[in-house]
Backbone:
């Protein structure tokens, strides 16, 4: 049996982000913004120029996803996470700008963890490859910026009971390290 | 000569693109079920459950099991007594990919150039490995390959003195370093021998085999079992978050090699281990 699931609402506050601990099973309800490599590059360039981001990042969770095209009658196509380490270079800037969380798959790097600790942010993992299942918890999705990037465009999503696991927390907790240690038989 | 029309090829390739992305193979499903029974991590069990449920939704709703519907990698075996009519074979395959990815609402993930990075918007060109074989049939295998697992793959030019131990250590370390990135549980394709590129193609071909199958040589069959056991002792488990199911299988393909070389390649494959084939 999995541990009991915590219901959380997004956007988060810094305090709420700090309360979440690596290993927590969560169901997320609220808003989320999507961005992958190309959109992050554009957003960080905008920050460098002192410009505003296409959405207010305060408290928001950024989902690293490039969904498949939406079939008629559906809110979105299949929409599982992409690998997060590719956003290591950008995530600290997004956290500094106000974001309280990232959602993807695979471990995030040291620089990101430092920013998470300093500002209060959390990294959620969701199941890579469970894209059709995950799509069921996405109730609405609209492209709000960089439409030319296709699958990589920035979308605003409304999610309900989106399944995720706190993988790395604002206190240095890391389920990738702790989980592997716990089950290692080497 | 037996004639096969490009129209038929286009239609077949388009259908294979869709079914490969919608329907997870029975061998993978059975392996996931067996892994679930043995998995001791509650988080890991939860993840395996989600992966299995996901495969059911994808099949029932004809939607891709993963949003990364991959690079269209094809292995095409052309019987030497086949004559293609109506056009060019490569073009027909690409047209099939174009149609399959459009009609199946599959994601277009191919860039025309690796550094200029502009999307071709129709998921072409496909990456096609042609082979000429006996007979008058045309066999088409498609194996859509996602980026996450592909990025964790590696070719290593080992020294002959590294031997079997060297190869085994390379494979295990490669899986360890991959962590949660390739969406474990993974299938590990291993190519030993050939040349630099030959080992990589062997590793990719290994991934076309059914899970649970073994290398015909008992020496390598035993190595497959030993590697699977070692990999599942790492403890990284489903999605790298801890557990006993890091890999569902290890598949080795081997080939002749040069006296000076011991090339080895690891092609990582996520649990969305997609491949479908048709014979025309
Ligand atoms: S590695 Fe496989 S399961 Fe994971 S996102 Fe890529 S294609 Fe999907």
Residues:
């Amino acid at each position: 049996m999995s541990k009991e699931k915590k219901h959380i609402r997004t956007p988060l506050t810094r305090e709420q982000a700090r309360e979440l601990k690596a290993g927590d099973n969560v169901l997320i309800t609220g808003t989320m913004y999507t961005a992958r490599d190309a959109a992050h590059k554009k957003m960080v360039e905008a920050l460098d120029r002192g410009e505003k981001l296409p959405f207010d990042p305060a408290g928001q969770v950024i989902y690293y996803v490039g969904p498949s095209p939406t079939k008629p009658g559906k809110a979105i196509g299949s929409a599982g996470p992409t690998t997060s380490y590719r956003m290591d270079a950008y995530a600290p800037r997004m956290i500094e700008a106000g974001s309280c969380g990232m959602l993807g798959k695979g471990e995030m790097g040291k620089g990101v963890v430092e920013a998470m600790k300093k500002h209060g942010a959390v990294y959620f993992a969701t199941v890579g490859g469970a894209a059709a299942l995950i799509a069921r918890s996405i109730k609405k999705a609209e492209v709000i910026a960089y439409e030319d990037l296709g699958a990589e465009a920035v979308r605003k999503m409304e999610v309900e009971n989106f399944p995720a696991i706190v993988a790395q927390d604002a206190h240095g907790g890391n389920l990738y390290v702790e989980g592997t240690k716990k089950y290692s038989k080497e | 000569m037996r004639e096969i029309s490009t129209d038929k090829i286009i239609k077949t390739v388009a259908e294979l693109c869709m079914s490969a992305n919608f329907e997870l193979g029975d061998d993978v499903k059975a392996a996931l079920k067996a892994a679930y029974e043995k998995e001791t991590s509650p988080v890991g069990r939860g993840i395996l459950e989600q992966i299995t449920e996901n495969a059911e939704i994808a099949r029932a709703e004809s939607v891709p099991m993963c949003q990364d519907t991959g690079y269209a990698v094809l292995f095409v075996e052309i019987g030497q007594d086949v004559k293609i009519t109506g056009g060019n074979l490569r073009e027909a395959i690409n047209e099939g990919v174009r149609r399959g990815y459009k009609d199946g609402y599959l994601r277009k993930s191919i860039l025309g150039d690796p550094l200029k990075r502009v999307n071709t918007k129709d998921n072409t060109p496909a990456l096609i490995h042609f082979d000429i074989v006996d007979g008058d049939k045309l066999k088409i295998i498609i194996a859509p390959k996602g980026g996450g697992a592909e990025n964790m793959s590696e070719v290593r030019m080992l020294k002959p003195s590294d031997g079997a131990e060297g190869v085994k250590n390379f494979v295990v370390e490669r899986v360890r370093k991959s962590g949660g990135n390739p969406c474990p549980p993974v299938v590990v394709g291993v190519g030993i021998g050939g040349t630099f590129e030959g080992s990589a193609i062997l590793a990719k071909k290994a991934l076309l085999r059914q899970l649970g199958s073994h290398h015909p040589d008992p020496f390598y069959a035993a190595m497959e079992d030993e590697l699977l056991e070692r990999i599942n002792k790492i403890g990284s488990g489903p999605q790298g978050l801890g557990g006993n199911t890091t890999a569902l299988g290890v598949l080795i393909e081997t080939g002749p090699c040069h006296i000076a070389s011991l090339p080895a390649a690891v092609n990582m494959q996520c649990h969305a281990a997609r491949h479908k084939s048709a014979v025309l």
About this structure: The domain at 5-181 of chain A is CATH 3.20.130.10 (fumarase). The longest strand of chain A covers residues 154-168. Chain A touches chain B through 51 residues (CB under 8 Å). Chain A has one domain: 5-181.
